[in-house]
Design brief:
This protein is an alpha/beta fold. The protein contains seven helices and seven strands; from the N terminus they run E-H-E-H-H-E-E-H-E-H-E-E-H-H. It comes from Kribbella antiqua.
C-alpha cells in the first residue's frame, strides 16, 4: 500500500488546546480520505510549544538543536502539511510564526497545505485569508481553497457545520496531493422544491 506522510504543525499554548483538537480532526479526515483511496497515511504531529526554547535559541544563534533539526526535516520531507494556529490580535500567534521563521524558506515550495485557526469568536475567521495565506504564499506553499476556522461555538451546536468544512478541506488536500482538480460542492445542485419552501 502506498504511504503518504502528513506533517501536522499545531501552535496551541495549553494542554489540551482547541488548536490541537482541530489539528487532530483535520488529520483524521485526511487519513480517512486517503484510506478510502487505498493509500496509507503516516501522521507526524508537531506541537510547537514543545520546541519553544529551541526555537528561541535558533533565532538567537542561527543554529537549530538536534531535536529541532529533526522536526524541521520532518516538515520539509512530508508530502503535505496541516498548519493550525490560535488567533492572537487578529493574526497567527508569535510561536506559530517563529516556527516558520526558522524553517528553510524553500522547504514548503510546491507543498500542499491545509490551513486552520482557532479563536473565541467568529469575527476573527478572516485570519485565514489576511494572515495565514500571505505567509504561506511567501513560502511558495500551495494552500487548498478551503481553510478551517473554529470558534468556541463550533465545538458545541456548530459541530456539524465544522465537520462539513473539515471534510471539504481534507478532500481538497488529498486532491492536491494527487494533482487532481478539487471537487467543489454546488449549493444549487439539489435545490429545495418550491412546494417545500411554501410549506416551511
Amino acid at each position: 500500500m502506498t504511504e503518504r506522510v502528513i506533517a501536522v504543525v499545531t501552535a496551541g499554548l495549553t494542554t489540551p488546546s482547541s488548536s490541537r483538537l482541530l489539528a487532530d480532526q483535520l488529520a483524521a479526515a485526511v487519513r480517512d480520505e486517503l484510506s478510502g483511496r487505498g493509500v496509507e497515511a503516516r501522521i507526524e504531529v508537531i506541537e510547537v510549544r514543545d520546541h519553544a526554547h529551541d526555537l528561541t535559541n535558533n533565532l538567537l544563534t542561527g543554529f537549530p538543536s538536534t531535536e529541532l533539526r529533526e522536526v524541521l526535516d520532518t516538515v520539509a520531507a512530508a508530502d503535505a502539511l496541516i498548519a493550525v494556529t490560535p488567533t492572537f490580535s487578529a493574526s497567527y500567534s508569535g510561536l506559530f510564526k517563529m516556527f516558520f521563521d526558522v524553517l528553510d524558506d524553500k522547504a514548503l515550495a510546491g507543498k500542499p497545505v491545509l490551513l486552520g485557526a482557532t479563536g473565541g469568536t467568529e469575527r476573527h475567521s478572516l485570519v485565514l485569508d489576511f494572515a495565514l495565506r500571505p505567509l504561506f504564499a511567501y513560502l511558495k506553499a500551495l494552500p487548498v481553497a478551503t481553510g478551517v476556522y473554529a470558534a468556541s461555538t463550533d465545538w458545541g451546536t456548530g459541530a456539524t457545520n465544522l465537520r462539513t468544512r473539515i471534510t471539504q478541506a481534507a478532500t481538497e488536500l488529498v486532491a492536491a496531493l494527487n494533482h487532481e482538480p478539487a471537487h467543489q460542492t454546488d449549493p444549487y445542485e439539489n435545490p429545495t422544491p418550491f412546494e417545500d419552501l411554501l410549506n416551511s
